[in-house]
Specification:
The structure holds 2 protein chains of 2 kinds.
Chain A: H1 5-13, E1 33-34, H2 35-45, E2 55-57, E3 62-63, H3 67-73, E4 77-81, E5 91-94, E6 97-99, E7 105-107, E8 115-118, H4 129-134, H5 149-159, E9 163-167, H6 172-180, H7 182-191, H8 193-218, E10 224-228, H9 241-261, E11 266-269, H10 278-284, E12 288-290, H11 301-308, E13 313-318, H12 323-326, H13 329-343, E14 349-353, H14 363-376
Helix pairs in contact in A: 6-7, 6-8, 7-8, 8-9, 9-10, 11-13, 13-14
Chain B: H1 2-13, H2 16-28, H3 33-53, H4 59-83, E1 90-95, H5 103-114, E2 118-121, H6 128-138, E3 142-146, H7 154-165, E4 173-177, H8 183-188, E5 193-194, H9 198-209
Parallel strand pairs in B: 1-2, 1-3, 3-4, 4-5
Helix pairs in contact in B: 1-2, 1-3, 1-4, 2-3, 2-4, 3-4, 4-5, 5-9, 6-7
Classes of the chains: A alpha/beta, B alpha/beta.
Bound molecules: CO-5-methoxybenzimidazolylcobamide.
């Protein structure tokens, strides 16, 4: 029986076999394309270069792909994105730098991606909980975030049959790193724990309130919710698993509990090697994991499916560190076949690239990836 | 000798205050700065490198150890300069142009420092010209490049070509690393060494300069 796009995603989220393998491109902050990759794709497919695509994330130089591309690949989900705060919009510092509502400076090399280069707690040797009290936090109630959200969600839900993915902000690991400094915050976890935990609590409180409000507004039209917090690296976890369990997991649980109160499935994103934490993530309450960075240590897809397939949906998996940018179309096909074989049995797999499609990836490889997925995902 | 062991352990624990205190105490007791460096601070960092390599410790532990080592180095550096002590080797390092990931590169720099190298860290988004300028200024023997993106790893090749054009390629050894980089890629672009992690980077750097 032929399913609608939404039914297909929902079937997979319920661990049921879909009529064909569901596909993603552009429904989530880490499953889309950079502006340059998008431009190349349009040219390759002979699509007009206008109108300019909508920005997905300014920080990541990513866009929401042209509907013509998404239809051509028969992608099953579409993104829903919160608005910008009225009270504290990005403050432009130069064409290549701006300050966000957390007081974090984002700067980019010419033509490149933005990265956090400065933040409110960057330069303190030993910041304290009092410093947290004094800080002017972003306002979760700011109406700009929710303006038109209900209408956009409803439109997607009623006028299309795509699954609607609500994209939320990053979790406490990343947000703390942005305001405090990437390494500094990791050091705080060990030598200034009170501050590190206090900061996480503030971040999570704000996150939970925004999520509650967004889902109260638009929940009726949302099929699943996505957010990320990177805890993996190429070679293993970013931090000791015990430290994750002690300090981060309870906060991740608070976030997941909030989404669950609204009855929505969760797609959680963490780059890198996270094998060692998968049981914890399942306990926290996530339903699906992205991006399954297959080139990182211990991210063997067959073993992941065997050990966790009963409880976890896999979302991603197509190798972006070698095959997509550097491989031949034939290798792309083989990669697609392999991941389908490893992950798709009994449902439980949504196929897309391991991260946003980067500028250097040949459009031909991307097209091959989706065509092969359509062919083998029957 | 007990003091040196305690100093190394303070580095391993990441106890910066204790590190500074023991370094000062060692100097006051007449230990030579070179001995405090080699058998205290560097000995501690060597243990950290080994443990990190086998996932026994993680990035946060490495960062606080490096911070502790630096607290000792601040005290030793002027003394070492007085004695005219020479570094094991001179390295110029950075993350290549267009790439802003710097955690891995920072750790590599810290480990190299912890092994007695003089390291000039150029930061991230480093253009070939900046590498070249720093190599000349520092009279570096090794240039270390890090890349975390498949988009930017080709800029390593570009930098090597720029080194050739500047007539420097024969004067420096090139070491590369970062998540997408492999031994094969390193050979393809004509680098002299590849390291998959910071501990191996130290071994490689020593190997490239034939020091032990
Ligand atoms: C000189 O000799 C040597 C020798 C050894 C050397 C060496 C040099 N350099 C490193 N080594 C070696 O020794 C080190 C210590 O043992 C090791 O260093 P590593 O750096 O590997 O390890 C560190 C200790 C810890 N590892 C890390 O810190 C990297 C972790 C991951 C999760 C990561 C992070 C944290 C970040 N990121 Co980025 N990020 C990912 C990473 C996932 C992964 N698999 O690595 C990766 C690298 N990111 C990726 C992407 C896509 C991006 N990131 C971006 C941004 C970021 C953050 C800002 C959020 C943050 C960086 C913060 C910072 N200040 O560095 C963007 C680019 C920004 C830019 N212009 O550079 C952006 C483009 C995202 C976007 N906007 O779409 C992916 C690249 C994919 C690809 N095709 O190459 C990625 C693999 C994630 C993924 N799942 O796909 C060894 O590699």
């Amino acid at each position: 029986m032929m399913m609608t796009h939404r039914e297909r995603i929902l079937a997979v989220l319920n661990h049921k076999e879909p009529d064909r393998l569901p596909l993603d491109l552009g429904s989530a902050i880490a499953t889309t394309m950079t502006a340059k990759a998008h431009e190349r794709m349009r040219a390759y497919l002979g699509l007009p270069s206008e109108p300019p695509p909508a920005t997905f994330s300014r920080r990541s130089s990513t866009v929401i792909p042209d509907e013509a591309i998404l239809r051509r690949f028969d992608v099953d989900a579409r993104p829903l994105i919160l608005g910008n705060p009225d009270g504290r919009p990005d403050r432009e510092v130069s064409p290549d730098a701006f300050v966000d509502e957390w007081g974090v400076t984002w700067a980019r090399p010419e033509g490149g991606h933005f990265i956090s280069t400065d933040g409110p707690f960057y330069h303190q040797d030993e910041p304290t909980r009092e410093d947290l009290e004094k800080f002017p936090w972003p306002d979760p109630a700011d109406p700009g975030r929710y303006r038109g959200l209900r209408e956009r969600a409803k439109e997607l839900h009623e006028k299309t049959d795509y699954a609607v993915m609500l994209n939320l902000g990053v979790g406490p690991v990343h947000q703390c790193q942005f305001v405090r400094g990437y390494g500094e915050w990791l050091e705080d976890l060990l030598i200034n724990r009170a501050f590190a935990e206090g900061l996480m609590d503030r971040v999570v409180e704000i996150w939970v309130e925004i999520t509650d409000r967004a889902l109260e507004e638009a929940g009726d039209s949302v099929d699943l919710v996505m957010y990320g917090d990177d805890v993996g690296t190429q070679k293993g976890l970013l931090l000791r698993p015990e430290l994750y369990r002690q300090v981060i997991k309870p906060r991740h649980k608070r976030m997941a509990d909030c989404v669950k109160r609204h009855g929505k499935p969760i797609l959680y994103h963490s780059c890198g090697s996270v094998y060692a934490l998968v049981p914890d993530l399942i306990e926290v309450g996530i339903d699906a994991l992205n991006p399954i960075q297959v080139t990182a240590a211990e991210m063997d897809t067959r073993r992941l499916k065997r050990e966790f397939g009963r409880d976890l949906i896999f979302w991603g998996g197509i190798n972006t560190q070698r095959v997509l940018p550097l491989g031949t179309p034939e290798e792309v096909r083989e990669e697609v076949m392999r991941r389908i074989e490893d992950l798709a049995e009994g449902g439980g797999y949504v196929l897309c690239a391991v991260h946003n499609i980067q500028p250097e990836v040949p459009p031909e490889n991307v097209v091959t990836m989706y065509e092969a997925a359509q062919e083998y995902g029957r | 000798m007990v003091d040196l062991k305690m100093l190394a352990e303070a580095v391993i624990r990441g106890d910066a205050k204790e590190c500074a205190r023991l370094t000062q105490e060692g100097l006051d007791n007449g230990l030579s700065p070179q001995v405090l460096l080699n058998d205290g601070l560097m000995a501690g960092m060597a243990v950290i490198g080994e443990r990190f390599k086998c996932n026994d410790i993680y990035v946060p532990e490495v960062l606080i150890a490096a911070r502790a080592m630096k607290a000792g180095m601040v005290i030793l550096r002027p003394k070492l300069a007085e004695t005219g002590a020479k570094p094991v080797g001179k390295v110029v390092a950075g993350t290549v142009k267009g790439d802003l990931h710097d955690i891995g590169k920072n750790i590599v720099c810290m480990m190299l420092e912890g092994a007695g190298f003089q390291v000039t860290d150029l930061g991230n988004d480093v253009a070939p010209e900046r590498f070249i300028q720093a190599i000349k200024e520092q009279e570096a023997q090794i240039v270390g490049m890090s890349a975390l993106l498949t988009t930017t790893m080709l800029n390593m090749k570009g930098t090597i070509e720029a080194l050739k054009a500047a007539g420097l390629r024969e004067k420096v050894r090139v070491m590369v690393g970062g998540a997408p980089v492999t031994q094969r890629f390193a050979e393809e672009i004509g680098a002299d060494g590849y390291a998959e992690n910071a501990a191996v980077a130290v071994e490689k750097a020593k190997e490239l300069l034939a020091v032990h």
